[in-house]
């Protein structure tokens, strides 16, 4: 699911209307790292990918200038006019993980869930910090 969401967001970035169109000889990461962060480096491309993944999981929240329809994987949303709520598959309330051939519930968000993602997206921190020894 993560790769699908990241792919969708990358395509969204690729087709986004910007003041400067991406040249055909520039990769998506090269172009948008430069546009978004002012330089095209390994670090700026890493930040771009952190942004894509953070937005895919956390959604818009209260971020200004972000399409309201970007609800994020961890929030309630709709697809084809049907309600969708995937959080229980990530927070351990559903036995959705196979561990030793047993269905178990694992809290994959035990290091703060969407809070570290929003902190990165709103500029409070420079990178998404995931603590060691967490499931996140």
Characterise the protein shown here.
The chain is α+β, with helices and mostly antiparallel strands and 136 residues long. The protein has one domain (2-121). The chain is 35% helix and 9% strand. It is built from 4 helices and 4 strands, in the order H-H-H-E-E-E-E-H. The strands form 2 sheets. It has a two-stranded antiparallel ribbon with strand order 1-2. Helix 1 crosses helix 3 (42-58) and helix 2 (28-37) packs across helix 3 (42-58). It is globular, with a radius of gyration of 17 Å.
**With helices defined by DSSP (H or I, 4 residues minimum), what is the helix count?**
4
The biggest beta sheet reads: 2 strands, antiparallel
Q: Helicity level, as a percent range?
A: 25-40%
- The domain count comes to 1
The SSE string, one letter per element, is HHHEEEEH
Instruction: Provide the gyration radius in Å.
Output: 17 Å
- The secondary-structure class comes to alpha+beta
Low-confidence stretches: none
Distance between the termini: 15 Å
Quaternary form: single chain
β-sheet strand percentage: 5-15%
Overall average pLDDT: 85
Sum up the overall morphology in one term: globular
The largest beta-sheet arranges its strands as 1-2
DSSP, total strands: 4
